[in-house]
Design goal:
By secondary structure, the chain is an alpha/beta fold. 36% of the residues lie in helices and 26% in strands. It is built from ten helices and 16 strands. The strands form three sheets. An eight-stranded mixed beta sheet has the order 8-9-10-7-11-12-13-14. Strands 3-2-1-4-5-6 form a six-stranded parallel beta sheet, sandwiched between helices.
């Protein structure tokens, strides 16, 4: 049995970190050693919940605790500094997206990473959602032909989880594109290679009492294969409904889409549909056959996305080729999102 990776965590302001930490503390291949958090209230709660040393800052943690990697989940505007601090100490980094919120911050992160062999792995849940894994397989196998358009709608509830005041300070926490669209831009890259941001805009509809809080945004990208990707993201999902993430991929030979965690497809002149009760089982109907099933990545009901995402991150840290690929993905996805945010901010200044 190989020695578990020793992990430290910094930042407990977002609920997502707890889902990862809860899985990490029981993981056979990782060992949670310490936590850094600036809030005294959150430090006290973490000490009781995880039974590890808790520090007010990352620097004393790294000075007093021997770890292999740092899990970074601070407020977005503070991530670049925490990532750099970990990299300068020679530690691998696992981070919630994004790695930075400005081009200057990202340049500093890239410089720090280039100076070390340490890896950067970004946690990207859509890559581990069964219906999206199916969709990627369909695209990769050429079932849809050449991709012409990819349209993503990402609508979330701003009040779905407790938010700190920093969350609503767009210029210091990051705008809607670095916060939400970063995940959708990664899906575009994951499906079809590199993207080039052609247009970006954000809006403030006054969803909260914070006058500069961006609650909607749009990004248009050129895809590597010559098609186009559109991302519309927002914090406007109604309280009475559920947040949702939808994607439609239109190719020369067919169309596939994911809605509500299910994949549907059209090919030629016939429709595909899901079988009853199979949340991530999709079908194509062709001219010669009633339906071709796409193998399900996992049953939607029993698939633990957070566990799968953590397992992939830990695996990446254990292999040089995976570390390089994960680092490239994290930096390029963040760069595209930050460039989009930069374009949007330039247009309103």
């Amino acid at each position: 049995m190989k020695t578990p990776l020793r992990i430290a965590a910094v930042g407990l302001e977002h609920d997502e970190i707890y889902r990862v930490l809860d899985r990490l503390r029981h993981h056979e291949e990782a060992d949670l050693k310490a936590i850094a958090e600036r809030s005294g209230r959150l430090r006290m709660a973490a000490a009781g919940r995880y039974r590890v040393p808790v520090f007010p800052r990352l620097a004393p943690l790294l000075d007093k605790t021997d770890v292999d990697s740092v899990l970074v989940a601070t407020a977005n505007g503070d991530k670049a500094a925490a990532v750099q601090e970990a990299l300068h100490a020679g530690k691998h980094v696992i981070a919630h997206a994004p790695l930075a919120i400005t081009l200057e911050q990202l340049a500093a992160v890239e410089e720090a990473q280039e100076a070390t062999d340490a890896a950067l792995v970004m946690l990207l849940p859509q890559r581990f959602t069964p219906a999206y894994v199916q969709l990627r397989d369909v695209v990769a196998q050429g079932e849809l032909g050449a991709i012409s358009q990819v349209v993503i709608i990402n609508s979330q509830k701003v009040a779905a989880t407790p938010r700190t005041q920093a969350f609503y300070a767009t210029k210091t926490h990051g705008g809607v594109l670095t916060t939400l669209a970063v995940h959708d831009i990664d899906v575009l890259r994951w499906l079809g290679g590199e993207v080039t941001v052609a247009y970006a805009a954000t809006q403030c509809h006054g969803l909260t009492e914070q006058p500069d809080f961006e609650d909607a945004g749009l990004v248009r990208c050129a895809l590597a294969g010559g098609g186009e990707g559109i991302v519309a993201c927002n914090w406007l999902a109604p309280d009475g409904g559920a947040p949702f993430h939808e994607i439609t991929v239109i190719g020369t030979e067919g169309t596939a889409w994911v809605h509500g965690g299910k994949m549907h497809a059209l090919r030629g002149d016939a429709a595909g549909q899901l079988s009853d009760g199979a949340d991530s089982q999709g079908y194509f109907a062709t001219h010669s056959e009633a339906g071709n099933a796409f193998p399900s990545a996992a049953g939607q009901a029993d698939h633990d996305i957070d566990a799968a995402m953590l397992n992939a991150a830990l695996s990446a840290l254990g292999a040089a080729d995976l570390r390089a690929a994960a680092t490239t993905a994290a930096l390029r996805t963040t760069r595209a999102a930050v460039q989009a945010q930069h374009i949007a901010w330039q247009d309103v200044e």
